[in-house]
Amino acid sequence: MPNSNRLPLDGERLLIIEDEVLIALDMEATLLDAGAENVELLTTRREAMANLDGQGYTAAVLDIRVGNGTTYEIALRLNDDNIPFIFCSGQDLSADMRAKLPDAILLRKPVMPSDLIQGILQAIKQRA
Amino acid sequence: MEDIVDPPIVGIGASAGGVKALQAFFEHLPTETGAAYVVILHLDPEHRSELAAILGNRTDMPVTQVEETTKLLPDRVYVIPPNRRLSIADHSISALPFDEPRGHRAPIDSFFRDLAEQQIDSFAIVLTGAGADGSVGVKAIKEAGGIILVQDPTEAEYASMPRNAIATETADFILPISEMGQRLIDLLHSRDQIKPAEVREAEDESIRRILSHVRVRTGHDFSQYKRATVLRRIARRAQIAQKESLADYYNYLRENVEEAVALFGDFLISVTTFFRDPKSFNALAQQVMPRLFEGKSASDTIRVWVPGCATGEEAYTIGILLLEEASRRDLRPEILVFGTDLDAGALASAREGRFPATIEADLSDERLRRFFLREGDHYRVRRELRDIVLFASHSVLRDPPFSRLDLISCRNLLIYLDRDLQQQVCNIFHYALLPSGFLFLGTSENADYPNGSFRPVDRDFRIYQPVGNSRDRRYFLPIIMNAGRTADHGDVQPRRVRTTDNISDAALHRQMLERIAPPSMLVEDTHRAIHLSDSAGRYLQPSGGPISIDASELVRPELRFDLRSALHRAFERGEPTLTLPIPVQFDTSLNRVYLHVKPVPQEEGPATHALVLFIEGGPVESIGDVPELNDRSPGLEQLQQLQEELQLAQSQLRVMREDSEAATEELRAANEELQSINEEYRSTSEELETSKEELQSMNEELQTVNSELKLKLESVSRAHSDLQNLMAATDVGTLFLDPSLRIKRFTPRMTEIFNITSNDEGRPITDFTHRLDYDSLADHAREVLRDLTPIEHEVKSRNDGWYLVRMRPYRTMDDKIDGVVATFVDITRRLRAEQALRHSEERLRQEARIVNLSRSPIFVWNFDDGIIQWNRGSEELYGYTREEAIGQRKEVMLQTVVPGSSFNAVKEALLKNGNWSGELQHRTKDGRILTVESRIEMVTIGDCKLVLENTFDITDRKCWEQRQQLLMHELSHRVKNTLSVVQAMARQTMRTSESGQDFLKRFDGRLMALNQAHTLLMNSYWEGAELGAMARAQLKAYLVDPNRLSIQGEKVILPSELATPFGLIFHELATNAAKYGAFSNQKGHVDLKWHVDKQSEQQHLSVTWEEHDGPIVVPAAKEGFGTSLITKALPGANVNIDYRPQGVVYEIELKLPESGPNSAEFQPLAPGR
């Protein structure tokens, strides 16, 4: 839903990895409202790993625990590919991951829509 | 007999062992003896004396301790108080403090000396004692006429005091105590018989006889000794001999040879001490001694004579003063002190120079040190002093005196002599002294008799110097020599010089003859004048020069020539001569004198004496009448006379020469004799030297033996004291019995068992009662003696104690059996302890059983080694049986792990604190790792460290804790997630709601759907939900009418991540149907079907929602939230919507997860499963 006004996430291509559908749908709506050009919703890790390369994501929102596992492997891939991302979860990063990704931004659920947008923008800024 | 009031006094001295001796003495003494007894004992000055009380038990006489001056009464006993000496004066006795320090005191001597000064009847008794106290005192008493009794030293407990008293040679009786009383009574009785004061003139004859008897026996004449002294001494001897009269005694004296010697000894008794009368000696030292040394060179000699020196004290005293004076001067002339006495015994002891220790009282410490050498109870004069004093047997009256003396000290002789003899002796002293010499007399004497021959230097202290020149002195010598000669020849004619009142007829005749006859002179053959008649002095005129007693030198010069020739003729030829008249110039007139010399006829041989008669004729009328002496022209007669005289002189000369030759010959012989004697002396001296060396070597040997003995004695006494201490210290009752079971010795503990005291040693043990139930004690002791094997018994005592009695034979050092040693060890406590031990062992066993059966794992291991106890609880927990566990190292068998520490740290903590508690991990026999709470305690028993460990399995509790923590995390996560979901749901519902009412209705519906799904999941503990149940729960409202909704499908369990979306999807489908589809009219119905395709490994689920007979389907212009939820809610699902006109059909296909519904996501919940 293009908007003539300049929106915060104008033109961004975003990836959401969240196994809770209701939350994922809400985030998608929020991000699209904030001007994102495209939002991809993925609910399983397997999907995510298969759909990372060549999609042109400009940023990602990751739940930590997805299905039976975690999104740490994905986060490390994103980090290697220099794609900005934030964590959005009810739990903490493991100590191991905190050490590997000292600058990673973590938003605690439940998240206010404005916080989510700000978090993404900050992550993009870090990588700029 | 007049003073019955004053009793005789018996002084009794005793020391060590004296109390017993005194008791025995008084027991043997009757009560009424008439004497007063004074007892002097050496008492401890610090303690009260019980002596009076003790002696009071043995005699009926009153016994008093002298406290103040008391008059002495007969038949009483007076006892010395402690720390006092007794003094007696005027029949009163008093106790005075000592002048000397302790250790130098001699109370017995002191009292005896006092007693002697009283000049009353006294007896001295010396009993047992150590030391020499009393020995000086008995001499004093004896001198004063007292009688000395001494206890027989062989009987005395301590023989030293009696021995020393006997050594003074004054003891009259040496008796055992039992005989002493009777002897004393006899003596007291006989004392009444002869009293010196009562000797009548009539008895003079007896005394004279006695004295002449003594003179015959001993060669010493005491007739001129003081009568009182002589009488006292004779009376004393008579008393001792128990003779009742002097006549009886005289007979006794004649019959007993020894008695004369004893009486002689008594006559000579004299008492001297060192520095007797110290003030006098002080005066002597200050006034005389320095002057003796004046003008003397080293080669000169100071000569001193001490006549009547007795045992030498006076001579040594003078010697000490001289040596002290000499040491003050640089020059030391030779010093010679002659001590002379008649008494050979006294001289012998003087020569020995050994004096009793009691002389300490008379000599200063300094003098004692310098001049004496301590030898046990005695002092010996040092060599320095001994060498200058010479002792010789010599009679002042009989023997020629010493001459050229510087000092004569005669303090103890003159008082015994009568006045005439005193005068003679003074003359002798006058002769013997140098003009510069001194005479030192006793305090009661003086030298005033020969008037003017001595002048006092110090009258108070009786120091005199001779006056007159040597010629005057020589004048007296012939007389003395004469007197001496008389005695020498044993001439019976006595007392020539003495004038006596009893003139016999013969003497009267002689006097008359002398008075009538012409003056005469008796001359002996050596021409010496021996005797002069009363009137002969007229014809004498001694010539100048040295005094001579040659008759021809003595007469007037005119008579000399004629007398010489006449005497010559008389002795050479035995012819009498009557000279021509010789004119002699007397004071006023010139008279003629005829000399008639007549030899006294002898029965044979030449005459030894001649009488010279001086016959005086008339005066010479004219010079011509008689030849003038100074006539220058001698007449013929005179010439003839001269020739005769010459011849006479020549013949005289010849005789003289012959005499001289003979004398030379004699001298030569004497010289030879002397030489031979000298040789003898030398050889004797060598022999003496040899025997001295022998003595020395023997002495050394003795010393060696002595020191060995001393060492041995020391070790014996040390062993003895060890034994004493052991006996006193030991806690074990020990009893030594001899072979007849008499008590030899026992330790103090024995008195607790037997009723014995230390006085019971020597009594049979069977006489005593004891507190043991042990009647066979004596039998057992005998058994031990018989079999020589030790016996041991535990014996009960009557006060509930127990004793271990051991008896073994007593073996002497040389392995003889000499009795039995019994020891009594109190084992009451040991037995009680044993009992208590048994009790506690029993209890311990009980407790051990309880521990063993306990379900709680308890085991014991040795700190340095393996397990030693392993109870049932341990077997159950760890799976190892007791047999397997014991001996194994606990940490190896159980593979102990201490979380956060190490097993070694635990062990260190045990060593430090003795206990430890905490968590451990142990491994069971089947390999399980258990976490246990362990409580460990270490007990050290001896050198074995036992560790008790009690473990408590907490593995399950640990699991639960972990699981709970996980759950908490999960819950938190889910709540947050759920809230996010609700948030998202609210926001999405909001987006598509037309109004608040609409939102509320939709939101409620969705929330309820979510809740339904959760409820189902909750029922399965979030493990999954059954698809049919889920559908029925969501579509409950439409199931009321089976025509509207049919549900068909097998049982499919959905995992939780699928269950919730399905719930929501069913809700949205029903909502959509109710709004637009089959449920919105009255006739429409829905078919819900599913099935699972199990072709491959993957389970494939197909769900179909098919609506029928609803309103005509119009596809929605815009996809609402509900629809996008349906299509997107299931990840990986394929959702197909077919809008058929008769009704919408939803087809959902998806793969069920491989692990199936049971592979839940909560893996940690069941670890190890």
TrEMBL record, chain A:
Coiled coil stretches, renumbered: none
Keyword terms: Phosphoprotein
Boundaries of every Response regulatory domain copy: 13-124
Gene3D superfamilies: 3.40.50.2300
4-aspartylphosphate found at: 63
Top-level taxon of origin: Bacteria
The name this protein goes by in its record: Response regulatory domain-containing protein
Origin species: Dongia soli
UniProtKB/TrEMBL annotation, chain B:
Endpoints of the signal sequence: none
Domain PAS intervals: 843-888
Domain of life the protein comes from: Bacteria
Catalyzed reactions: L-glutamyl-[protein] + S-adenosyl-L-methionine = [protein]-L-glutamate 5-O-methyl ester + S-adenosyl-L-homocysteine; ATP + protein L-histidine = ADP + protein N-phospho-L-histidine
Active-site residues, record numbering mapped to chain: 15, 42, 133
Domain PAC: 789-839
Keywords recorded for this protein, A-Z: ATP-binding, Chemotaxis, Coiled coil, Flavoprotein, FMN, Hydrolase, Kinase, Methyltransferase, Nucleotide-binding, Phosphoprotein, S-adenosyl-L-methionine, Transferase
Transmembrane recorded as keyword: no
Residues annotated as transmembrane: none
InterPro entries: Bact_Chemotaxis_MeTrfase, CheB_C, CheR_C, CheR_MeTrfase, CheR_N, CheR_N_sf, HATPase_C_sf, PAS
Domain CheR-type methyltransferase: 195-445
Coiled-coil parts of chain: 636-719
Domain annotation CheB-type methylesterase: ranges: 3-191
Pfam families: CheB_methylest (PF01339), CheR (PF01739), CheR_N (PF03705), HWE_HK (PF07536), PAS_10 (PF13596), PAS_9 (PF13426)
Protein name: Chemotaxis protein CheB
